[in-house]
Amino acid sequence: MTSTWSQFANLIAAVLFILALKGLSSPKTARNGNLLGAAGAVLATVVLFFSGIKLSNLLLIIAAILVGSAIGGISARRVKMTQMPQLVALFNGVGGGAAALISVVEYLEAGPDDTFALIATVFTVIIGSVSFSGSIVTFLKLQELMTSRPVIIPAGKYVTILVAAATLAGAVWLVIAP
Predict the structure, then answer these.
(1) 129: pLDDT confidence band, cut at 50, 70 and 90?
(2) In 15, 31, 95, 178, which residue has its Cα 20 to 30 A from 73's Cα atom?
(3) Confidence (pTM)
(4) How is the chain split into domains, by residue range?
(5) Residues 6+ apart with CB under 8 A from 26
């Protein structure tokens, strides 16, 4: 697929994802929102398959899609409606963790000389990791495996600032001196 067609198809997929989020904002339009999101995901996947993907990775990608679809489909059918928030939190966490891991693999493939890939990797790892950890905490609280009361850490604001500063410093260091 040519670069222009690939970019155009990805733009359409992005618009479908945005429309899906809009549709998911109301129970009346949620079904159509899900369909638009699924159409966007299928389009993005098809574009990926035709945009120069390595054939050696194709079998792994197809296997991952099949395994993920089977686990997701079976889980969605077996979980009671009252436990759906826990399932959504768990799936969101898995998605965030997967995004972080995939970005690391892509960085290792591109190498340290690709500054754009490095910056994208840093942001994706940070966002994916926050999504993963936050979703796991949400799952644990909803499942009542963790207290739902706020956890107060002594000097918590300072700890948060310190962790954020260390993360930012590590990200800058990685970009400047890979």
Answers:
(1) very high
(2) 15
(3) 0.70
(4) 1-51, 81-178
(5) none
Band of pLDDT at residue 1, cut at 50, 70 and 90: low
What is the full DSSP assignment across the chain?
--HHHHHHHHHHHHHHHHHHHHHTTSTTTHHHHHHHHHHHHHHHHHHHHTS---HHHHHHHHHHHHHHHHHHHHHHHHS-GGGHHHHHHHHHHHHHHHHHHHHHHHHHHH-TT-HHHHHHHHHHHHHHHHHHHHHHHHHHHHTTSS--SPPPPTTHHHHHHHHHHHHHHHHHHHHH--
Q: How far apart are CA 93 and CA 130, in angstroms?
A: 9
Output the pLDDT for position 176.
Answer: 83
Is the separation of the CB atoms in 140 and 88 below 8 Å?
no
Q: How far lies 90's CA from each of 101, 133, 169, in Å?
A: 17, 10, 30
Separation of alpha carbons 164 and 144, rounded Å: 28
Name the more confident of 168 and 115. 168
Distance CA 10, CA 23 (A): 20
- What pLDDT band is residue 58 in, cutting at 50, 70 and 90? confident
pLDDT digits (tens, 9 = 90+) for 135-156: 999 999 999 998 888 888 889 9
Determine the Cα–Cα distance for residues 86 and 99; give it in Å rounded to an integer: 20
